[in-house]
Design a protein that fits this description.
CATH class of the largest domain: Alpha Beta
Number of helices: 17
CATH superfamily of the largest domain: Glycogen Phosphorylase B
CATH topology of the largest domain: Rossmann fold
Structural class: alpha/beta
Length: about 500
């Protein structure tokens, strides 16, 4: 029988809202702890104190000063600051200005060293605070060294003797690959390379791979993605390693923060609404059309994408069908930044079709929320998508998703069936531009039938994608990890 006692859980991540956000990782790490706390667990968080995190604005207090970290052959002094999120959940921030007082969060040649220092700082800070967790929950490559350390340099440390590790893969494509020196910086050079049998990884250090290999349990952000990454197509050269640990791999769908993502209270949108007042929603479409200088017309289907503008998100396919799509008379709004050639593609389209295409080459929360609330259809034709939050937010706000059946998209969006009336969106299977086009055309055809479309909207709005169920599943995995850790395997 599993232990039902409250757990002491440390969640360690490179980013989290409300402090700093680069991608969906920040949303997950900002929301999950609140639901875990509501289940009665002792939750604490850890992240770097970046230059973008203003100590005054976030009421940070210094709780430890000048902790000296041994980094290979040199010492680095760090301090620890404490902030809070939610209902007084502590957030420990490792403050090392040389490494984190920079213009950007990621993208530096010493990123490996930066995040190894951060992880080492967290483990030493816990010792200083005399708080030994039952679980250290690590996220993405930035924290992959922690499970490695628990099996090496901290293996015989009584302070961490009962601590199990859980490692979450948000996107397997970003693995944290570095040269041999990073092992020396991390203090695990004696353990050498891990993948001599994999040509591409034989002479590099893959930090995510080390997290996968050494964690007591591994999770990823949807059940479908957990299955997909066991295959060469989605496994990013780590599928063999993942298959060897498949009994410890669990898929848990990300949730939404329903307090933050609530069309009834969202202060960013023009007119608040819910399922009982869906008739108010068209006012948001009108305001979105006005803001984007598109003709105000409630009958014209308004499609939207909020995304990084990259091949992964399906923009290469979209480029092949954009002309026939616009020939259907739709309006199309895109928000995001990414590859320059996609910036230019949409700038040219907006100039050529000013009454049909609007583009925001930025990321802006206010505009994003207005797009969710004002669009009729939301496109996510991804090449791969570990979980995806966009389709969940879109459904919450009454925008009907059109997606490719991969990862979390396949777990959350089902094709509308005109015979049974079941389904909550439109789905295509193969990475093919004309399959995408066909899915959009099916949506456009149904859009003409307002009563049926309204039922589709209401079905999406009624779905429960809150964090509560996901948090309970994580607690199950935490208890499994503790049992795995005790077994010594």
């Amino acid at each position: 029988m599993q232990d039902e006692r409250p757990l002491k859980i440390l969640i360690i991540s490179a980013e989290m809202v409300p402090f700093v956000k680069v991608g969906g990782l920040a949303d997950v790490v900002g929301a999950l702890p609140k639901s875990l706390q509501a289940l009665g667990h002792d939750i604490r968080l850890a992240m770097p104190r970046y230059g973008q995190v203003d100590p005054t604005r976030f009421h940070l207090e210094t709780i430890a000063d000048a902790i000296s970290l041994n980094m290979s052959n040199f010492q680095v002094p760090v301090s620890v600051r404490r902030g809070t999120v939610g209902d007084a959940i502590p957030v420990y921030m490792i403050d090392a200005p040389r490494y984190f007082e920079r213009e950007n969060i990621y993208g530096y040649t010493d990123d490996g060293e930066r995040f190894i220092l951060f992880c080492r700082g967290v483990l030493e800070a816990l010792r200083f605070l005399d708080w030994s967790p039952d679980i250290i929950h690590c996220h993405d490559w930035h924290t992959g060294i922690v499970p490695n350390w628990m099996h090496t340099i901290y293996h015989d440390d009584p302070f961490y003797a009962q601590t199990a590790t859980v490692y979450t893969i948000h996107n397997l494509a970003y693995q944290g690959i570095f040269g041999y020196r990073i092992l020396e910086v991390a203090g695990v050079a004696a353990h050498g390379f891990l993948y001599p049998q994999i040509a591409e990884l034989a002479n590099v250090v893959d930090i995510m791979g080390r997290g996968i290999l050494f964690a007591d349990a591994i999770t990823t952000v949807s059940e479908r993605y957990a299955q997909e990454i066991l295959t060469p197509t989605f496994g990013e050269k780590l599928d063999h390693l993942l298959r060897s640990r498949r009994e410890r791999l669990f898929g848990i769908l990300n949730g939404l923060d329903y307090e933050e993502m609530n069309p009834a209270t969202d202060h960013y949108i023009h007119t608040n609404f819910d399922a009982q007042s869906l008739d108010k929603r068209p006012e948001n479409k009108r305001m979105l059309q006005e803001q984007t200088h598109l003709p105000v017309n409630s009958e014209v289907p308004l499609l939207a994408m909020i995304s990084r503008l990259t091949d992964q998100k399906g923009f290469d396919m979209l480029g092949q069908i954009i002309q026939p799509l616009l020939a259907q008379g739709v309006q199309f709004v895109v928000l995001g930044i990414g590859d320059q050639h996609y910036h230019e593609m949409f700038q040219n389209l907006a100039a050529r079709y000013p009454e049909q295409v609007a583009i925001f080459l930025t990321f802006n929360t206010e505009i994003a929320q207005r797009i969710y609330a004002g669009s009729d259809m939301f496109l996510m034709p991804s090449r791969f998508e570990p979980c995806g939050l966009g389709q969940l937010i879109a459904m919450r706000y009454g925008s009907v998703p059109i997606v490719r059946a991969v990862g979390g998209l396949a777990d959350t969006v089902q094709e509308y069936n005109p015979r049974s009336g079941e389904g909550n969106g439109f789905v295509f299977t193969n990475y093919d531009p004309w399959e995408l086009f066909a899915a959009i055309v099916r949506a456009l055809e149904l859009y003409r039938f307002k009563d049926i479309w309204r039922k589709l909207q209401l079905r999406g709005m009624a779905a429960d994608h809150s964090w509560q169920a996901s948090a309970m599943r994580y607690v199950e995995v935490y208890n499994n990890a503790i049992e795995f850790h005790k077994s010594g395997k």
